[in-house]
Amino acid sequence: MEINKDIADIQAAEASQRKKKKFILCYHNFNVKNYKRAAAEIRKISEEAGSPISIAVVPSIGGAPESEAEEFREEIGKFMDEGYEIILHGARHRADLFVKRSFQGKIGLWLSSNGAEFAGLGKNLSQSLLTRALALWKAHGFGLPSGFVAPVWFGNKFLKKQVLSLFDNYEDLFHIYKKTSRGSRAIKSPLFTFSIFPKPLAGLAQTIALLGLTINSGTPRLVFHAGDFQNMGEDRVLGLVRYAKVQREKVMYRDL
User: Fold this and answer.
1) Residue 247 near residue 216, CB atoms below 8 Å
2) CB-based contacts of 60, cutoff 8 Å, min separation 6
3) Which of 49, 163, 207, 229 could bridge across to 170 with cysteines, CB 3.0–4.6 Å?
4) CA of residue 51 relative to chain centroid, distance
């Protein structure tokens, strides 16, 4: 009996230690074109995780019919009422190809198939686009989101300061930045995302994430995109969520 109790105590201590490690679980690119399918996928992920997750929302409705725009807003409202966290995800997730960008920004556009709308912008253009993104969001009638993430995480050298003047959180490829009274603090945050992998490499992407969630320090981000259920398969997506919540404690950006 004593031996069994000792083993149980050790297992409990190991589980407690794992839970001290945190991770972010987020779904990216929730928008007016995919909200029906994406909402169902988000709810499957959160059910597997055991609690609401963070959602990166693209606020532009483009030329969508007003009926779809209203349903999109209603879905966002439901998520917010249920405790999901909203992160603003750019303005429309498509870059204006006719504005001036740095060389690095042009590379960002090429790597992202023109999705990185903030990549390499100058100070004024970056601020103007951020202001537009926030205006598009406010037009839906909701309060300020928890934070902001540029599409594809490609920004510019001005964007972090601009975002943190408005929001509590900003993130890039390697860190989450939390606003403080003295500026911001950087939280090391390895990124595990899957939309960049072609379907034949889904297994490799899963393995990289499993290893990373096990061995990485900091607060990893496990980020799924609209389309991952098709490219990776639902079993892989939900399996990663199950594994992550055993290894670490799920938190939201607002909890950091």
Assistant:
1) no
2) 31, 32, 91, 92, 93, 136
3) 163
4) 16
Task: State pTM to two decimals.
Answer: 0.90
Quote the Cα angle for 106-107-113, to 5°.
90
pLDDT per position as a tens digit, 50-106: 999 999 999 999 888 999 999 999 999 999 999 999 999 999 999 999 999 999 999
Cα within 13 Å of Cα(117), Cβ side? 20
Span 161-209, pLDDT tens digits: 999 999 999 999 999 999 998 889 999 999 999 988 878 888 888 899 9
Q: What residue type is 252 in one-letter code?
A: M
| DSSP code per residue over 173-195 | SSEEEEEETTEEEEEE--EEE-T
Q: Which of 207, 184, 180, 213 is nearest to 194 (CA)?
A: 207
Helix (H) or strand (E) holding 36: helix 35-49
